[in-house]
Amino acid sequence: MKxxxxxxxxxxxxxxxxxxxxxxxxxxxxxxxxxxxITTTSVTLSWQDSNxxxxxxxxxxxxxxxxxxxxxxxxxNTTLDLNNLxxxxxxxxxxxxxxxxxxxxxxxxxYSFTTQSLPVVPEFRQxxxxxxxxxxTLSDLNPSxxxxxxxxxxxxxxxxxxxxxxxxxxTGASMTYDGDxxxxxxxxTVIAKTFFYNNNxxxxxxxxxxxxxxxxxKIDGDWVSGDYRWNDAQTEATLxxxxxxxxxxxxxxxxxxxxxxxxxPSDTDCLTCHQTNGDLTPIGPKLRTLNFSTNGINQLQALIxxxxxxxxxxxxxIGELPKWTDTENYTLEQRARAxxxxxxxxxxxxxxxxxxxxxxxxxxxxxxxxxxxxxxKNSIINRISNYNEGFSMPFIGTTIVxxxxxxxxxxYLDTL
Length: 416
Prior knowledge:
This protein has about 425 residues and is an alpha+beta fold. It folds into 3 domains: about 30-115, Immunoglobulins (Immunoglobulin-like, Sandwich), CATH 2.60.40; about 115-320, no CATH class; about 325-415, no CATH class. The protein is built from 8 helices and 24 strands. The strands form 8 sheets. A 6-stranded antiparallel β-sheet has the order 11-12-14-15-16-17, with helices on one face. Strands 3, 4, 6, 7 and 8 form a 5-stranded antiparallel β-sheet that branches. A hairpin with a 6-residue loop joins strand 1 and strand 2. The longest helix is centred in the N-terminal third of the chain and has 17 residues, at about 1-20.
């Protein structure tokens, strides 16, 4: 009997609550937030609302902001255009449905989007940051999404400095195959090479010292050069046509301390090496020098697949410059000739700076007979074995002897 009375009372209670005029249906939160038409400074947001409410509160801010501290907007539709945003920045968004003045939904789940990066500027601005080659903190050297990083199979010696190499093509443009050498670059191509030293090669977490970023821009069919010198705080690099000396100290992979006076070239120095028949020209990014795999992917194939290189379908049809440090896959002669090519040939070729001063022709493809290496053997030995400014080779770009490179060249020359 007591149990029956309890059930009756409970039923009456439920009936009374269901007929209470003060009960308000729950306001469901917004779902399926989406971002579209994302640009560098704007975005269109949309969301779904099962309540068919008349208004919505949108709060947004840089990713990680605390609700209540962001920017808010009141919207009567389920779409909203946001403007005046920061480029390449991630934002968080929350939507709250207003079912009535005293009935708000819970906040939606957080939704995040990232604005686009600024395009690369093919101009020589005063500050390197103004060219938009990098994303985020400048000294992190993170390439922009509009830039591709490349490496060379054999590299030029520059007083043991590390180098980051970048190319930025105009949006929708590509390089065109023109043989094993340099491709044809479209107008407004930007090529950048940044020189830096790791403070301690045994512990890369200790950071790096960035010295300079050299820039080539193709303007009205001609290449123009400029050099950006990094400040001591590593926060910016400024255009510097004069160059100068920078003391650098680092610990190498063997734990030994090294000190040099690194020499930043002037604009005139750059022209000395970067010229063919008097015209400024790139040196490094020849297709045969890029034709190798990094992280299991052939660089040229990656460029072809990304529509950044046209006129060729298979990297196997392109020659390859050997890696001068690779003793397993290349002969001593191949390695020595590759070293000559990347370090010396840009001057010692027809049309190069040393065309008249020297009979040496040091391009990898040049036959040994036509290179004149044998007849100039003793002169080569004298000019590479010690560093004497104005006499040693390379003529500019180094201030010390490259011991590992000289060792290979001397070993090779001893066979001739």
